[in-house]
Amino acid sequence: MTFAMEKHDRHAILADRVFDGRSWHRHAAVLIEQGRIRGLAAWGDVPSDWPQHRLPANSILAPGFIDLQVNGGGGVLLNDDPTPDAMRAIAQAHRRFGTTACLPTLITDTREQTQVAIAAAREAAGHDGVLGLHLEGPFISPARPGVHRPDRISQATMDDLDWLAELGSAGTSLITLAPECVPKGFIRQLANAGVRVSAGHSEASADILLNAIDEGLTGVTHLFNAMPPLAGRAPGIVGTALAEPRLTAGLIVDGIHVDPISVRAAFAAKGADGIALVTDAMPSVGASVDRFDLMGRTIRLQNGRLTAEDGTLAGAHLDMASAVRNAVNLARIPLEDALRAASFTPARFLGLEHERGVLQPGARADLLALTPELTVIETWLGG
Questions:
Q1: The pLDDT value given to residue 2
Q2: What is the b/e burial string over 185-222, where b = at least 16 CB atoms within 10 angstroms of the residue's CB?
Q3: End-to-end CA distance of the chain
Q4: 3-state secondary structure 68-87
Q5: What is the pTM of this model?
Q6: Which residues pair with 136 in a beta bridge?
Q7: Tens digits of per-residue pLDDT, 59-87?
Q8: Which of 3, 37, 40, 163 has CA 20 to 30 A from 213's CA?
Q9: How are beta strands 10-19 and 52-54 bridged, if at all?
C-alpha cells in the first residue's frame, strides 16, 4: 500500500523499530515536513500538533529501497517501450515492494533504441522514483552475452562517446560494459561526464579491471553472473570485486542466480557498504504473466525462474523486499546489513547518500514499513 500525503503536511510515523540506514532506534518516530525528513524523535517527544501515524506492533520503518537494475515490472519491459511513461510504470509497479527509486534498465539493443531510451530518461528522471537510466550494454563481451542478443553487441570506439554523452544529463545514470571491449580512455570520459560505469558481461582480467577503476569505473553488475569464476591464479572480476574497496558490487539474491553461501562470502568480504542488492527484474514482477517476449525470444517463468528456450537465465522474477528477505533467511545476513545493501549502499554508489537511503534531517522522506516477516506494509514516496 502506498500513501500519498500532501507535500506540505507535517506528520510523524511511529514504529517499534526504526532503522535510519546506519543504526536502530526503539519506539521512535520519523518526523516529516514538506516531503523531507525533519528528524527522529522518541514517541513521547513528538510535537503535540503533528499528526501521528502509528504502525502496527513490531513493525519496522526503514529507508525506501533503491534498485540499480530493473528491466521491467507490471507487465512492462523497457526494451519494448523505451518511453518516459514506461519508465514511470516500471517504477510504480515496484513501489508496492518497497522500491522508492530505481534505474530502469535497457539491455543491449540497437543504437537507435538506446538513444530513444536516453532521451526518455532525460524526461522521466526525477519523477515517480525514476532516477535515470541503466544501459546494460551494448559494449559487452560476446563471450559472456547471457540473454543479450549477440547480433546487437558491439565493440566501442571513441566516436561512441558522442552519442553516449547525453547519458550524463539523463538524471543519475549508469552503463554496464566489458572493460576489455572499450578503448583506453573511454571509461574516463564517461566518468568525467557524470555517468557511473560498471563492469559486467565481461571476461576482464584483474589488471584490466584495475586499470578501468583508475579511469573511474566504480561498480560490478550482478556479481558472479556473466563473468568467469574466481580462481587462485586468475582472480578476474570476482576476485577483484571482493578485494577492491573502490568497487560496489550488485548482487541478485533470489536463491537462483547466486548460491546463498556465495552471497554470504560476498558480504563477508565487502560488508554491506560494498554490496548493493538488485533485482534484475523482468515484466513478470507485479504482473500475473508467466511468459513474455524478450527481443524475439520467449521467456518463461517456472518455479520462480525465468529462462529462455535454451535454459539461459533471463533476468529475475524478484522484487527488492524479497531480495532482503532472501538475504536474511537464505544467506543469514544480519537484517541491518540487508536493509543497508538495499538502500544506503546503492544511494552512495550513485552519489545520492545525503538525499536517499537514510532517515536523516534533510533527506527525502522515502520510507517503507515492514512486518517482522519483512513483507511491505506501506510505502511513502517524498513523504
A1: 44
A2: ebbebbbebbbbbbbbbbbbbbebbbebbebbbbbbbb
A3: 14
A4: EEECEECCEECCCCCCHHHH
A5: 0.96
A6: 107, 176
A7: 999 999 999 999 999 999 999 999 999 99
A8: 163
A9: parallel
Known catalytic residue at 259: no
Q: Which amino acid is at 67?
A: D
Q: What are the C-alpha distances in Å from 253 to residues 267, 310, 373?
A: 12, 23, 17
Which contacts of 80-88 are long-range, i.e. CB under 8 A and separated by 24 or more positions?
Answer: 80/293, 82/106, 82/113, 82/116, 82/117, 82/120, 83/116, 83/120, 84/120, 84/121, 84/123, 84/124, 84/127, 86/120, 87/120, 87/121, 87/124, 87/130, 87/133, 88/124, 88/127, 88/128, 88/130
Q: Which residue's C-alpha cell is 526503514?
A: 62
Instruction: Read off the C-alpha cell for 335.
Output: 537484517
Q: What is the pLDDT of residues 109-130, one digit of tens each?
A: 999 999 999 999 999 999 999 9
> What is the total residue count of the chain?
383
Side chain identity at 257, as an amino acid letter? H
For 243: left if phi > 0, alpha if psi spans -120 to 50, otherwise beta; the answer is alpha
Q: Note the Cα 290 to chain centre separation in Å.
A: 23
Catalytic residue of the set 280, 319, 337, 366: 280
